[in-house]
Each structure stands twice: as structure tokens, then as C-alpha cells.
Amino acid sequence: MNVLSVALLGTMAASAMFGQTVAPPKTHLKVGDAAPDFNLPSTQGGRVKLSDFKGKNTVVLAFFPAAFTGG
């Protein structure tokens, strides 16, 4: 499973959790294309780039939209 597939599954899971329909972002990418490099904040306070994991078999992106919020 490539990173693009993982990202799309995460979007679908988030929309299912909140009962909302979320349209996929407009992009020139197609299923099976390599994901573009991006960076996100890490849980340790730094930044993590997708390219940091180049050569690894699997990359999992976990999305917790309501984590660590008071609600």
C-alpha cells in the first residue's frame, strides 16, 4: 500500500467518524502515483518529512483530529 492510499484511507476514516462527506482534494495525482514529499509536526516537537522514510517498506500516517483537546 503506498502513501497516497494511506492518506486517502485516513481521509475516509475521518469523514466516517464525523458523519460528514469530505471530497478528496483536487490534485493531478492518480491512484498508484508516488506521494509528493510533505512535512508534518512530530509528537516529539520537531518536523518529519515523508522523504525521511525513503527506502522503507511501509509508512503509516496516523491522524487523531480530536486528540489532546479538552472536548
Give a quick summary of the entry.
The chain is α+β, with helices and mostly antiparallel strands and 71 residues long. It has one helix and two strands; from the N terminus they run αββ.
Protein described:
It is a single chain. The chain has 71 residues and is an alpha+beta fold. It has 1 helix and 2 strands. The chain has one helix at residues 3-18; strands spanning 39-41, 47-49. The longest helix is centred in the N-terminal third of the chain and has 16 residues, at 3-18. It is flat, with a radius of gyration of 14 Å. The model has no long low-confidence stretch (mean pLDDT 76).
Which features does this protein show?
alpha+beta, 2 strands, flat, 71 residues
Strand order of the largest sheet: 1-2
Radius of gyration: 14 Å
Strand tally, please? Answer: 2
Q: Which outline best applies?
A: flat
Strand content: 5-15%
Termini Cα gap: 33 Å
Average pLDDT: 76
Q: Given the helix and strand composition, which structural class is it?
A: alpha+beta
SSE arrangement, N to C: HEE
Helix content: 10-25%
Q: What is the number of helices?
A: 1
Low-confidence stretches: none
The largest pleated sheet is described as: 2 strands, antiparallel
